[in-house]
């Protein structure tokens, strides 16, 4: 299995009982491991499997990280205002049909 593997990702969740909030559902996150060989990554994952991991154990102070994600649109916003796309004028899609006929 390890010889075909290129990327190792871990599915982790937050501990809701530790946080004193009314939230009952845990946050589930998929984290990609970078750096080192595949064997080292798998060894590290197996050591920490089913154990609580502190953020300070993974990240250092003022360390840069990459976040991949999208935003959730709330309310009645349309695509144009949310993603800053341009609005087409009326009947723009029919102009190519008119131009080819003449």
Automatic annotation (TrEMBL):
The keyword S-adenosyl-L-methionine does not apply. The keyword Ribosomal protein applies. InterPro entries: L3_arc_euk (IPR045077), Ribosomal_uL3 (IPR000597), Transl_B-barrel_sf (IPR009000). Keywords: Ribonucleoprotein, Ribosomal protein. GO terms for molecular function: RNA binding; structural constituent of ribosome. It holds the Pfam family Ribosomal_L3. GO terms for cellular component: cytosolic large ribosomal subunit. SUPFAM superfamilies: Translation proteins (SSF50447). GO terms for biological process: translation. It comes from the Eukaryota. Belongs to the universal ribosomal protein uL3 family. This is Uncharacterized protein.
């Amino acid at each position: 299995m390890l010889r075909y593997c290129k990327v190792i990702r871990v599915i982790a969740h937050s501990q809701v009982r530790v946080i004193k909030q009314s939230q009952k559902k845990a946050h589930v996150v998929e984290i990609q491991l970078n750096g080192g060989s595949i064997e080292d990554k798998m060894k590290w994952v197996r050591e920490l499997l089913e154990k609580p991991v502190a953020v300070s154990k993974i990240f250092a102070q003022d360390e840069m990280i990459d976040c991949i994600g999208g935003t959730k649109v709330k309310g009645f916003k349309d695509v144009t205002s949310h993603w800053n796309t341009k609005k087409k004028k009326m009947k723009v899609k029919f102009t190519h049909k008119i131009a080819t006929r003449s």
